[in-house]
Each structure stands twice: as structure tokens, then as C-alpha cells.
């Protein structure tokens, strides 16, 4: 079991590093958005490329950070129901939800997004807007984001199973209070 817990820690470390890197992408998105608005309203100039860059940066923040959000226990949950139970029942709810809902959906989206991304790369797909950007850099965020979320789901499964066996602290409870 210690090898699997080590794997969980590696996945947690990966998503932690990606989450911290995404902070910088968020700053870039704010700067691009601000400069674009200032130029558009003060100089009456605009560019589709700058607008698309804003969207791309938003996608680059939102999708890869989904695993980080799950790691930090900041995802949407039904606390009104699960909060009434003890840690062991909550762990079982998390295991059930991860196995029945999270992993199937994330793995399906990951798998189904690969052909779309590949086609976009091979065809050097461009935006249909005048002055638009290449599409594959933003499309590749879909499988990356869902893969990271799937990996974090596996890590959370490992931690909940280890908790139920008495080998790991209640991770959900610890992170909810940090």
C-alpha cells in the first residue's frame, strides 16, 4: 500500500505544481484583458487575436487547474448531505462518487477529445475570425485538463481507501479547513 500512497503523493505534487503555475497564467489573462480594453477604448483599436488570446488564457487557467481544485478540496460537493455523516461515511461517498461519476466522465471526455485535438494539430486549424489564432493550443487544454483531473481522482481514491484502512489521515477533512 505504501507504493500506491507514494503514487498518490506524486500525483498530488504534479497537480500542486500545475496549480501554482496557473496562477501566473491568470495574471497574464488579467494583463492581456486590461491592455486590450485600454487600447480598444482609448485608441479605438481592436484585434481578434487579442480577444482570442484572452479566451485561450482563460481555458489554460480553467482546464488544467481542475485537478488542483480537486486536490485542494475546493470542488463543488453536496456538503448539506455529506456533512451530516462521519468521516468514514464521507470517505465511502467520495469513493462511490469518484468511481461512478468522476472517473467515467473525465476519462470519456479525455478519450473523445483526442481525435479532435489531433485533427486540429494535423490541419493547423486556424480561427475563422480575421486575424485569429491557431486553434490547437487551446484545444489541447481539454485532454490535458481532463487527464489531470482523472489522475487527481485516482489520487483521491487512494487516499480515501488508505484512510478507511487506517493508513492515512482524513484528507478531505484536513483540506476543507486549510
Topology, element by element:
Blueprint: H1 2-43, H2 48-62, H3 65-71, H4 79-82, H5 87-122, H6 136-139, H7 141-164, H8 171-176
Structure description:
The protein has one domain. Helix content is 78%, strand content 0%. It has helices spanning 2-43, 48-62, 65-71, 79-82, 87-122, 136-139, 141-164, 171-176. Mean pLDDT is 87; it is low at 174-178. This is TRAP transporter small permease protein. Residues 30-161 form the Tripartite ATP-independent periplasmic transporters DctQ component domain.
Give the tags:
single chain; 178 residues; mainly alpha; 78% helix; 0% strand; disordered C terminus; TRAP_DctQ; cell inner membrane; transmembrane transporter activity; sugar transport
Order of helices and strands: HHHHHHHH
Radius of gyration: 20 Å
How widely separated are the two ends? 26 Å
Molecular shape:
elongated
* Largest pleated sheet: none
Q: Report the sheet-strand fraction.
A: under 5%
What is the tally of beta strands? 0
Q: Which regions are unreliable across 5 or more consecutive residues at pLDDT < 50?
A: 174-178
Structural class computed from helices and strand pairing: mainly alpha
Mean pLDDT: 87
Question: In short, what is this structure?
Answer:
The protein is mainly alpha-helical and 178 residues long.
